[in-house]
Amino acid sequence: MSLDIDYYELLEVERTADEKTLKTAYRRLAMECHPDRNPGCDKSEAKFKAINEAYDVLKDPQKRAAYDRFGKAAFENGGMGNGGARGGAGFGDFSDIFESFFGDAFGGGRQRGPVRGADLRYDLEISLEDAFHGRTTEIAIDVAAKCGDCEGTGAKPGTSTRRCNLCGGHGKVRAQQGFFVVERTCPTCHGRGEVIEDPCRKCGGEGRVDERQKIEVTIPPGVDEGTRIRVAGKGEAGPNGAPAGDLYIFMHIARHKVFERDGTTLFCRAPISFTKAALGGEIEIPGPDGSKHSVNIPEGIQSGKQLRVRGAGMPVLQGRGRGDLVIQIDVETPTRLTARQKELLCEFRETETGEECPQSRGFFDKVKEFWDDLTE
């Protein structure tokens, strides 16, 4: 140990500090005590190493639990303190014992070798037109990337690591629980068998540094709300030079001024005048690709009627063909009439027989029968 001080006191945090608080405190202190900022100061260099040592323990849930229970004795001479198991931290639950004995046989054991970096999520909003055509765009993300100075090893360039004293370089330790002797990954070296003696100054022994990266993303035609695009190897860098995770981009389609979407089908509402509804005619509806579709309005069409244009909807994602464009007709009653228009409508009303609007006539016939029944 570089400094015989409680790890929490060393990092200047409470014992209940969460992961974010620990990380913030570590970065602040590491910057203050960094050898580059304190050249020739042995005390600062020793504190810098001690801070890294403390953070390495407290950021790991298993090692932190062992430290909270037994202090530094948990990592010295292969002991855990009174009542603890030799050679490592205690058991979380019986599943650890089961996995240690039967995991490899049944394919469910703990992962061997380097631990892959974490996957990342990015939410990207695009227009309906971009979803129709597809596009290539550039996004910027903040990610823990592999340190360029130490190539992800965490060791200062030009220095070497030393064999882990806890596991003897095996990367595994044995712990006894009653009649069981269980082999687990070493909590000090995390299975590497080696310990960093002189941490990299740029990353503080983490092997990773936070940086902003720009990534080019190809969006295929036909993506929909919630479509997930995987960009391999663009997630967080793995610890100790392990492979990076993946980046998952979740697509969100911005609301459109004309269309609503359901899969590959596009919907739009088309208000038409009551004269066009009565006499019929044509309307022109745009497509998401800028094309124009002439739609025939049959005579006497009613509100709510849907007209379909085949193959004028969204493309099938990673497939062939397109969905349909569905136009819902809304017959609009005029609200601003000139005197002449009112006069013509009055003349039309005088000629009505009831046969022009059979649904209306049928409804009021039923209403009349209802009143007649009540008066009998």
UniProtKB/TrEMBL annotation:
Zn(2+) 1 binds at C147, C150, C200, C203. One of its GO terms (cellular component) is cytoplasm. SMART domains: DnaJ. PROSITE patterns: DNAJ_1, DNAJ_2, ZF_CR. CXXCXGXG motif repeats lie at residues 147-154, 164-171, 186-193, 200-207. Its cofactor is Zn(2+). Binds 2 Zn(2+) ions per monomer. The keyword Magnesium does not apply. It is found in: Cytoplasm. Zn(2+) 2 binds at C164, C167, C186, C189. Residues 6-71 form the J domain. Keywords: Chaperone, Cytoplasm, DNA replication, Metal-binding, Repeat, Stress response, Zinc, Zinc-finger. Participates actively in the response to hyperosmotic and heat shock by preventing the aggregation of stress-denatured proteins and by disaggregating proteins, also in an autonomous, DnaK-independent fashion. Unfolded proteins bind initially to DnaJ; upon interaction with the DnaJ-bound protein, DnaK hydrolyzes its bound ATP, resulting in the formation of a stable complex. GrpE releases ADP from DnaK; ATP binding to DnaK triggers the release of the substrate protein, thus completing the reaction cycle. A zinc finger (CR-type) spans 134-212. Homodimer. Belongs to the DnaJ family. PANTHER family: CHAPERONE PROTEIN DNAJ, DNAJ HOMOLOG 1, MITOCHONDRIAL-RELATED. Residues 134-212 form the CR-type domain. It comes from the Bacteria. GO terms for biological process: DNA replication; protein refolding; response to heat. This is Chaperone protein DnaJ. The J domain is necessary and sufficient to stimulate DnaK ATPase activity. Zinc center 1 plays an important role in the autonomous, DnaK-independent chaperone activity of DnaJ. Zinc center 2 is essential for interaction with DnaK and for DnaJ activity.
